[in-house]
Amino acid sequence: MPHLPAPTAEPLAVLKEIYGYSEFRGKQAAVIDQVVSGGDAVVLFPTGAGKSLCYQVPALCRQGVGVVISPLIALMRDQVEALKQLGVRAAAMNSSLSQEDFIATRRALARGELDLLYVTPERVATAGFMDMMRDLEIALFAIDEAHCVSQWGHDFRPEYRALDRLAEAFPGVPRMALTATADPHTREDIIERLALTNAAVFTTSFDRPNITYEIVERAQPRRQLLDFLSRHKGESGIVYCLSRAKVEETAEWLNGEGIRALAYHAGMEREVRDANQDAFLKEDELCLVATVAFGMGIDKPDVRYVAHLDLPGSVEAYYQETGRAGRDGLPADAWMVYGMADVTQRGRMIDRSAAADEIKRVERAKLNALLGICETADCRRQAILAHFGEKHDGGCGNCDTCLSPVETWDGTEAAIKAMAAIYRTGERFGAGHLIDVLTGNETERTERFGHTAMPVFGAGKDIAPKTWQSVYRQLLAKGLIRVDHEAYGALKLEEGARAVFRHEQSLRFRVDRAPKGKASSGTRKRNDAKAALSEQDQSLFEALRATRTALAKELAVPPYVIFPDTTLIALASHRPGSAEAMLEIQGVGKTKLQRYGAEFLDTIRAHG
Question: Which SUPFAM superfamilies would you find in this protein's record (predicted)?
Answer without folding.
Answer: HRDC-like, P-loop containing nucleoside triphosphate hydrolases
